[in-house]
């Protein structure tokens, strides 16, 4: 016989001898029965040990212990259910009071035993009823206050959108500032239309940024090529001098070439530094276009003489606005390309064409030119003169200047620069001019 069964036998003797009386006057946790049944109720003591409850122990319909108020002859349904196994929770109302009864089976006292607990929960029930009342009040308040307020707020938000749509319609309809009344569905349709337009603009901007990124990658590739070319040449001549016995003529030629390539790298570095500087940090001036062309031609004088090419000019008295060193660099690149493309003893024409207030400068050579088909023209714009043309394009873009290169019928190439675009004329208008 286990210790628990022995304790149950002792309990039965105590009950039989009526040692335990008025058990309902004590808390269950303070009772002798609780101490005896604790091993069986160890998992449930945290829940039921502090209840001031009616406590009953029934074994096969016969009470081992019961409160005076418990009618063992008229067993509640939950006790009968608990006898068959399983815990039962029942909520009962008696008058204004509400009780929670728990019945559970215990396999002790040499047979199936049911133990019941009962606790008054009237206060908790009243709190639940109050909570339900508060919820009903909140729902009614939401329906009669918050819903109209939400509709008013929604109208407050959509009204400015309607005004924006109206203003956009006015601008589109030839500055007609008459207001238009749109239905709700029409507003949505118009919003969808304008959002679609905005989406197209964003898509165009993305495509533009992609092209800019590709252009920068191509530009960097050209920079890398232009830098590596003179470096490779310098290294080659240096290795030649190291391997060859001293020869004054060879040394003079090699050192001259090394010096020339070093100057080329220095000039390239200077041009790149000019492009790295933000455009708002440039010195923008008003100066004569003739001064730009004069400086560019003079800096290339030795190439004209070396190839026997002549230059013929038509000057202009017009002034332009921009950064003088950058524009000189651009003209030097265009004229240098014209010299390289020209035949020996050829002629390069630099003409300033003025018509109806417009000013264009054209550089024309009589060289081999190109066919003018789209594929060759695209390739020409991408790779002609390596970094030179890319550098010119960047400089002219900063000056809001359009330029165009076209082939001539009888051979040769014509490059025209337009200095009278609207953007070029209006750009930097707030910066004081410095006249030369």
From TrEMBL:
<keyword id="KW-0808">Transferase</keyword>
<dbReference type="Pfam" id="PF02518">
    <property type="entry name" value="HATPase_c"/>
</dbReference>
<dbReference type="Pfam" id="PF00512">
    <property type="entry name" value="HisKA"/>
</dbReference>
<keyword id="KW-1133">Transmembrane helix</keyword>
<keyword id="KW-0418">Kinase</keyword>
<feature type="domain" description="Histidine kinase">
    <location>
        <begin position="222"/>
        <end position="423"/>
    </location>
</feature>
<feature type="transmembrane region" description="Helical">
    <location>
        <begin position="131"/>
        <end position="153"/>
    </location>
</feature>
<dbReference type="InterPro" id="IPR003661">
    <property type="entry name" value="HisK_dim/P_dom"/>
</dbReference>
<dbReference type="InterPro" id="IPR050398">
    <property type="entry name" value="HssS/ArlS-like"/>
</dbReference>
<dbReference type="InterPro" id="IPR003594">
    <property type="entry name" value="HATPase_dom"/>
</dbReference>
<keyword id="KW-0547">Nucleotide-binding</keyword>
<dbReference type="InterPro" id="IPR036097">
    <property type="entry name" value="HisK_dim/P_sf"/>
</dbReference>
<keyword id="KW-0067">ATP-binding</keyword>
<keyword id="KW-0472">Membrane</keyword>
<keyword id="KW-0597">Phosphoprotein</keyword>
<dbReference type="GO" id="GO:0005886">
    <property type="term" value="C:plasma membrane"/>
</dbReference>
<keyword id="KW-1003">Cell membrane</keyword>
<keyword id="KW-0902">Two-component regulatory system</keyword>
<keyword id="KW-0812">Transmembrane</keyword>
<protein>
    <recommendedName>
        <fullName>histidine kinase</fullName>
        <ecNumber>2.7.13.3</ecNumber>
    </recommendedName>
</protein>
<dbReference type="GO" id="GO:0005524">
    <property type="term" value="F:ATP binding"/>
</dbReference>
<dbReference type="InterPro" id="IPR005467">
    <property type="entry name" value="His_kinase_dom"/>
</dbReference>
<dbReference type="InterPro" id="IPR036890">
    <property type="entry name" value="HATPase_C_sf"/>
</dbReference>
<dbReference type="GO" id="GO:0000155">
    <property type="term" value="F:phosphorelay sensor kinase activity"/>
</dbReference>
